[in-house]
Amino acid sequence: MTENSPQSSEKHRVRIIIVVNQLSLGGTERHLLQILPRLQRVLQQEHFDVSVIVIKGGGRLEEAFREAGVPVTAPDPGLPNFMQRIWSSFQIVKIIFERPDILHFFLPEAYLIGGVLSALCRQPITIMSRRSLNDYQKRYPIAAKIEHWLHKRTTVLIGNSRAVCRQLLDEAEDASKIGLIYNGVDLDMVNQTVSRSTARKELNLAQDAVVLVIVANLIPYKGHEDLVKALHNIKHKMPQPWTLLCVGRDEGIGGGLEKRSNECGLRQNIQWLGELSDVSKYLAAADIGFLCSHEEGFSNSILEGMACSLPMIVTDVGGNAEAVIDGQTGIVVPTRSPSALGDAILKLALDDSLRATLGEAARNRVETTFSLETCVISYARLYRSLAKKDHSPVADILENETVK
Asked: Which domains can be identified in the chain, with CATH numbers?
């Protein structure tokens, strides 16, 4: 077992405990790795401590959190999953009895386990951040009922898009506890990325190729099959040469996708790259980015592509169209429509001037609306307010427009 805890101080320190499923390479975990160290620095002089408890140990980012100064409590990854959950539950209860100031849950399993324990043990201030649409509740109706029960007992419900916030409002029926915090991009890190020509040279990509990229784990709802179908339909109209870079962890469908793409005559055009801890070089090498999901909350990968001046083609689900303004910073297409997706690809692939115009506008939009600094300020504002027992509507605290 591994456990780190904040150092004590004579003056009361405001303890904020983040509860998350696992510190793997997913979008939520990468989001937390970006914001939590910065929050530590922003709030340290105000006597705030931020630490993390994970339900399942062994995530690839655990040590990165610790190295960044964020304490992590995690079960032994060698234990069976059910034993890890029991161990983590015990740690959550132990911490609740120590009366932390705020417990903040990310992802459904952490909310179900930590939220129920908090409700039973009467933890006074709790936050839940939902980072996807609630489509998963259709598959898990009992979990959905528990979540709805928890909403009434949770202090604050945070969505990462207006689409998610609207669903939370439908479930909780209390607008005063619902707020919006968009994901943010570290522009300083993006600015350090290698040039397009250097990235292509290092990745052995032709300088004159049209390079497409999608950063999304290989999960059915991410829409990779739609993308393969779209490319099959337009392959003879595409400028030559062209390449699609597929970055993401295989969740069980990779073999089928690769077989399907080969059958469509795309073997030489698609690279299945698997899970990568650093995608910056691949984004730098690309001309067009994608997210063709069937469901989504608000994707980091869209913002990261936009920050790299990529025109993004995204499906009209969740917060995708809140990030990408159709025709101004990218193209928004209907979900599950390979024909519309193919038309959008051709429109950009055949017009390098349009790509440049949309890509520049995308970068500007990230700078003005989706910077990491803005995101961190929002979290800090929320934590300060809750620590002071401020009962103002959350949207007012975060300076959001109403979520209605």
From this structure: 14-184+371-396 (3.40.50.2000), 187-369 (3.40.50.2000)
Grouping H, G, I as helix, E, B as strand and the rest as coil, residue 296 is coil
Contact in structure between 275 and 249 (CB atoms under 8 Å): yes
d(CA 70, CA 50): 7
Torsion of CA 116, 119, 124, 125, to 10 degrees: 30
CA 370/CA 282 separation, integer angstroms: 21
C-alpha triplet 391, 393, 395: angle, nearest 5°: 140
User: Mean pLDDT in runs of 10 for the chain (404 residues)?
Assistant: 50 91 89 94 90 95 95 96 96 94 96 97 95 91 96 97 95 96 89 91 96 95 96 97 96 95 96 91 97 91 95 95 96 97 98 97 95 94 94 91 63
Residue recorded with tokens 């069937």: 294
Give residue 11's pLDDT.
67
Tally of CB atoms within 10 A around 369: 14
Number of H helices, E strands in the chain: 18, 13
Nearest to 286 by CA among 329, 239, 243: 243
pLDDT value of position 398: 94
What does 85-118 look like in DSSP terms, one character per residue? HHHHHHHHHHHHHT--SEEEEESHHHHHHHHHHH
DSSP states along 218-262 = B-GGG-HHHHHHHHHHHTTTS-SSEEEEEES-B-S-HHHHHHHHH
62-70 long-range CB contacts below 8 Å, 24 or more apart? Answer: 62/23, 64/23, 64/33, 65/23, 65/32, 65/33, 65/36, 66/4, 68/33, 68/36, 68/37, 69/37, 69/40, 70/36, 70/37, 70/40
Q: How many angstroms separate the CA atoms of 352 and 358, rounded?
A: 10
Structural contact between residues 18 and 63, judged by C-beta atoms closer than 8 angstroms: no
Residue found under tokens 């949770």: 154
pLDDT in the model for residue 321: 94
User: What is the reported pTM?
Assistant: 0.86
Looking up tokens 């619902």, which residue turns up?
178
Tell me how crowded residue 85 is: count the other CB atoms within 10 A of its CB: 16
pLDDT of residue 4: 54
For residue 155, the 8-state DSSP code is: S
Q: Which among 318, 307, 339 is positioned nearest to 330, based on CA atoms? A: 307
